[in-house]
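Worked example 2:
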Amino acid sequence: MKKFLIYILFIFTVASCQTDLEYKISGYTQKIIVEGYISNGEFPKVYLTLNFPLSKLTDSLNMIENVIRTAKVTISDGEKTEILTSGWEPNKRHFPPYMYVGTELKGQEGKTYYLTVDFSGYKLNSTTTIPYGTSIQKFECSPIKGNDSLRDLFMTLNIDPTAKNSYRVFTLKKRDGYFIETQYVYNSEFTLSGSNKFNISPRVTELDSSFSEGGNFFKGDTIQVKLCTIDSVSTQFFKALTLFSNSNGIGNDLFIGEKDKLKSNISSPGFGIWYGNGVRYYSVVIQ
């Protein structure tokens, strides 16, 4: 659903501007790829592209050329409906950096939201509910052996096993200026219960100013932590995406081709994810 994706994701990338969605070659079918989300207290964002087969060249030019800029994207909570506006992301941290964003309808925990995408004669639909957010009970810092300047960071959550939720964690360092996702979808097997402690380790790249820190944090820094509670449908999608990305060495933000194990909740001929975030923000001083 980081370098972004805002993160994400790179989304099922694309190889041609044609809108013939019946085009098939070697088992490949062109699809409208959707990455959309809505968080409590925030406006929805949706990214749209066309996918391309594994045999095609993956480069930024092809991706940009196949960003969908002319769709009609509608969000509804069952009472109020809004058509999203579109444009290039100001910070271009997400790739592709073109988004559809709301300006009126903000997310609320516990509410259900309906997504409709009209493009090239096709209508895609999806539904999601924003889970109630989970609070972090405490943060702990631990010294790194052999480096007095760096620290590991841990969080403790109290997990309700009946909710069937899991968690994505992002951190923001001043030297980066944007949120970076950690390595894992926590509680992806839905087996955890009660108080659980997790390591927070941002997945940095050479493009990030904090690359020299790796997944650690400098002592004395103040960082922002964003905890996103997601439902079981979203969990299975991001879990499968993580496994696919790790096994193919292409990173969590790039969807290529068609992968049955990626559990889409977008109606055909679409693919991807529309999900709700129950978000909590924290400010942490690294001790």
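The longest strand covers residues 270-285. Residues 232-248 form the longest helix (17 residues).
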